[in-house]
TrEMBL record:
Coiled coil: none annotated. The chain crosses the membrane at residues 12-30, 139-161. PROSITE patterns: HIS_KIN. This is histidine kinase. It comes from Colwellia psychrerythraea. It catalyses: ATP + protein L-histidine = ADP + protein N-phospho-L-histidine. One of its GO terms (molecular function) is phosphorelay sensor kinase activity. It is an enzyme of class 2 (transferase). SMART domains: HATPase_c, HisKA. Residues 226-416 form the Histidine kinase domain. Its EC number is 2.7.13.3.
Length: 418
């Protein structure tokens, strides 16, 4: 099953997914940036104002001093709130922000300053919850930012969809023209829209291949036409000569005349087969009726060879049926498979099984890896079978058996005619 998607769908999916990832990524960065900026601002503010208030300790004040509703200063480590003391030691200096379990945040600053007891470390503690956004305000702000980001995402999505369709339109047009049956003449293709360098190269290469295919077909048709004409003329002359020779009352002449006549008939059938293979006809309108009588007529041509090679031959037709194929080409498939099997199975067994779904020819001869005595290879017979199967989109295979010989199979991929 083909699950391939259009190029525009793939481009849209990739870019929209990328845009969504970027939106989430930048949203997380923006959120963390706000929190980081708040904390740094609080630390720097406390580090800036604390030294000014630490002067009170040198003017006679001591202990804990409430500067304002947010800020307290301490001249001793021991009088710090327990929750702060657990997080810093006596020798610590600097600035830091602590976030407690009850969702309170405190900014702490420590520095050496002059007190009544001399130079010692003093502390400033500021409750920064009073100046930071509460959860509701921050949630509203995040929602607004997300809504704006979603709006930008929708605008980007519409732009991406439009550009993806614009980019993929020439490729889709080219694919439709290649798939269309209107281009059987292999004329050069052209597409509308904005062409990229890669598409121009692809289009140039496709047209070059189409031109070469068209030239090849034309040469093949011309060759087939010329050869068939040139072969039929001498065969007609040969037939005329045979008819004269048969008037002679000579047994040897009669025997050779029959051999020549059979060879001419076989040649004519071969030429006709080549012409049918090269022709593009509508096979749906041409049927062959496969029956025991039809198969028997084909097998009759091999009776002398079967007898000469001492082959035990067996044929079986499952049932009568009709098939959308040229009768001569269907007969050529059976003939070539039988010819190959009989010539390779001297004093052996050859069986042919035919059903509405397939043909199987089984022998116990020399197999595919050896050349039978007195028989020069497999000739062009199997190549003809392959070409006919390709023409009708059948499946052809030939393989060695587990024992001796081989099995040739043709599986019909088209519907049986009714």
């Amino acid at each position: 099953m083909n699950n391939a998607k259009p190029m525009s769908s793939k481009i849209i999916r990739v870019y929209l997914l990328g845009a969504m990832v970027l939106l989430v990524f930048y949203g997380a960065i923006f959120n963390n940036t706000i929190l980081y900026t708040e904390n740094k601002s609080s630390e720097r503010r406390l580090a800036l104002i604390s030294p000014y208030h630490f002067k009170l300790f040198s003017q006679g004040f001591a202990g804990e001093i409430q500067i304002d509703p947010m800020l307290k200063i301490y001249d001793q480590y021991d009088i710090l709130p327990p929750s702060i003391k657990r997080r810093i030691d006596k020798s610590w200096q600097g600035s830091i922000i602590f976030h407690f379990e009850d969702d309170h945040e405190y900014s702490v600053f420590a520095k050496q300053a002059m007190t009544q007891k001399g130079l010692t470390i003093v502390y400033a503690l500021e409750d920064i919850d009073a100046i930071e956004w509460d959860d509701t305000e921050f949630a509203i702000f995040q929602t607004a930012i997300f809504g704006f980001g979603l709006f930008i995402y929708i605008i980007a999505a519409l732009f991406i969809i439009k550009m993806a369709k614009r980019i993929s339109t020439p490729f889709s047009s080219l694919a439709d023209k290649l798939e269309s049956n209107d281009n059987e003449e292999y004329a050069p293709l052209s597409v509308d829209g904005e062409l990229s360098q890669e598409l121009v190269q692809m289009l140039t290469s496709i047209n070059s291949y189409r031109s070469r295919i068209r030239d090849t077909f034309m040469r093949e048709q011309a060759f087939t036409r010329y050869v068939s004409h040139e072969l039929r003329t001498p065969m007609t002359v040969i037939r005329g000569g045979i008819s004269i020779l048969r008037r002679l009352n000579d047994e040897k002449v009669q025997k050779q005349s029959s051999r020549i006549d059979n060879a001419v008939i076989e040649m004519e059938q071969l030429v006709h087969t080549f012409l049918l293979m090269a022709r593009n006809e509508d096979s749906d309108t041409i049927n062959v009726d496969v029956s025991d009588e039809f198969i028997q007529k084909i097998v009759q041509d091999f009776e002398s060879t079967i007898h000469a090679n001492q082959v035990d031959f067996h044929q079986e037709l499952q049932c009568d049926f009709s098939l959308n194929v040229q009768p001569l080409l269907f007969a050529a498939v059976i003939k070539n498979l039988l010819k190959n099997a009989i010539n390779c199975s001297v004093e052996g067994n050859v069986s042919i099984f035919i059903s509405p779904q397939r043909i199987d020819v089984i022998d116990n001869g020399v197999g595919l890896d050896a050349q039978p005595r007195g028989y020069e290879g497999f000739g062009i017979g199997l190549n003809i079978v392959r070409d006919i199967c390709e023409k009708y989109q059948w499946q052809f295979s030939i393989k060695n058996n587990l024992g001796d010989g081989c099995t040739a199979s043709v599986i019909f991929s088209q519907k049986i005619a009714t």
